[in-house]
């Protein structure tokens, strides 16, 4: 580290003539307690130059560096001059470069000042790209040498400009054997680099990859993998994902393209699945999931309607089901019945609706309710985006009638997304109508608690 050339270092110089300070007279326990109240990245700059004794204190203190350039820094080691991300994006190129240099200088100064031998967590969040490649490489190298356990790189602005984004170098991961959690956002990580990380990181339990323009056919496989949680999102060029992970508990995939294929070869402990697609519904992948649906405890879906599968495979262990759906003209909400009726032991069902049909704020009483088998275990319902439209009301009425053991229903009538399309008065009237309709629907279920939000 002595040969590191890092810019913008503003470390106060130690004056050998300064006599012993009073703080250093305190016991080690008291000093460690003081340090524990300070953010690590600030405490290093404030204390490391005071006395050689501080170097020893860092050895016994868990260090978690959180270099987040989008939030105010309490002690002013780095002070950003923009209010939010939109302000930064509107900046002139030279002003944005100045902000980047300030941020890089702050990280450099802290890492130079830190004399401890270990770093527990290392997080960097800012608009960085290939122009900062040399510095970022060095940061990773330092963190790895200090046996970092949790590493997060979030570079925000790089994607989708793949030629400008920071590329994760495989050779920087010397010391990777201590890593238990890795989060890469808007970092270019190729299939080969991802496989290399998995094969050389025996302690890794959490892997989050978001917005990587180089992923095409990632493979998550290995009989000795300890990986428990896998998240892949905003992979616009991902064509397939292959999974063979004996300890995998949860898997999340978002923003699936229409050509995407999922191959779960071996995941005996998989109990939580989150699937999100803007282009197709889960029925497109049911065949590849059929062996694992019965073992799921939690299933969260964000998808287009309708479901094409009329008889969904039985999910015997499912306890929590969440569906975020988009309703467009001529799309039916009742296609979700196959999912609910295929989950006989479901305890909680959450439905989030985005309705693109034209809203009519006219109160209509629901007369005819669809018949369905009674659900003996469903105790809690939550409906978000309820506007009281006939399709929504009939589906909620169906749920109320089927859930014979229902204890609580929470209904959200938030129309913030509609304010740009309708007048303020219309939104308020519709909000009141939705509340009134919800109360009417609950007339036949007085034993259940109704919460209106």
From TrEMBL:
This is F-box domain-containing protein. PANTHER family: FBD DOMAIN-CONTAINING PROTEIN, OS02G0105600 PROTEIN. It holds the Pfam family LRR_At1g61320_AtMIF1. Residues 26-67 form the F-box domain. It comes from Hibiscus trionum (Flower of an hour). Signal peptide: none annotated. Coiled coil: none annotated. InterPro entries: At1g61320/At1g61330-like, F-box-like_dom_sf, F-box_AtFBL13-like, F-box_dom, LRR_At1g61320_AtMIF1, LRR_dom_sf.
């Amino acid at each position: 580290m002595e040969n590191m050339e890092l810019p913008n270092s503003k470390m106060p110089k130690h004056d050998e003539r300064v006599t012993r300070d009073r703080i250093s007279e305190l016991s080690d326990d008291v000093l460690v307690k003081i340090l524990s109240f300070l953010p690590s990245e600030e405490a290093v700059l404030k204390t490391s130059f005071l006395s050689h004794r501080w170097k020893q204190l860092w050895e016994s203190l868990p260090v978690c560096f959180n270099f987040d350039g989008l939030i105010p820094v309490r002690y002013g080691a780095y002070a950003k001059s923009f209010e939010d991300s939109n302000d930064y994006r509107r900046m002139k190129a030279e002003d944005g470069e100045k902000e980047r240099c300030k941020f890089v200088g702050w990280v450099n100064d802290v890492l130079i000042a830190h004399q401890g031998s270990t770093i527990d967590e290392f997080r960097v969040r800012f608009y960085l790209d290939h122009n900062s490649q040399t510095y970022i490489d060095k940061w990773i190298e330092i963190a790895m040498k200090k046996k970092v356990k949790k590493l997060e790189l979030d570079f925000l602005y790089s994607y989708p400009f793949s030629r400008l984004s920071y590329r994760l170098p495989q050779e920087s991961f010397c010391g990777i054997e201590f890593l238990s959690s890795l989060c890469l956002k808007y970092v270019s990580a190729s299939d080969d680099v991802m496989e290399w990380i998995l094969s050389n990181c025996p302690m890794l339990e959490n892997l989050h990859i978001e917005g990587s323009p180089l992923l095409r056919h990632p493979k998550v496989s290995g009989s000795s993998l300890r990986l428990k949680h896998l998240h892949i999102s905003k992979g616009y060029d991902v064509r397939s994902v292959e999974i063979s992970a004996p300890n995998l508990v949860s898997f999340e995939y978002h923003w699936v393209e229409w050509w995407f294929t999922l191959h779960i070869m071996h995941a005996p402990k998989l109990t939580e699945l989150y699937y999100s697609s803007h282009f197709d519904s889960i029925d497109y992948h049911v065949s590849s999931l059929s062996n694992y649906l019965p073992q799921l405890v939690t299933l969260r879906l964000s998808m287009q309607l309708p479901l094409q599968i009329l008889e969904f495979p039985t999910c015997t262990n499912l306890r929590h089901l969440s569906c975020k759906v988009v309703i467009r003209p001529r799309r039916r909400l009742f296609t979700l019945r196959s999912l609910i009726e295929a989950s006989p032991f479901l305890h909680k069902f959450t439905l989030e609706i985005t309705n693109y049909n034209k809203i009519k704020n006219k109160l209509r009483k629901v007369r005819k309710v669809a018949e369905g088998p009674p659900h003996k275990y469903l105790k809690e319902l939550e409906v978000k985006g309820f506007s009281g439209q006939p399709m929504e009301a009939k589906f909620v009425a169906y749920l109320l009638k089927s859930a014979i053991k229902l204890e609580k229903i929470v209904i959200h009538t938030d129309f913030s997304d509609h304010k740009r399309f309708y007048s303020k008065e219309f939104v308020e009237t519709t909000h009141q109508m939705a509340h009134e309709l919800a109360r009417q629907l609950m007339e036949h279920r007085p034993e259940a608690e109704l919460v209106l939000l």
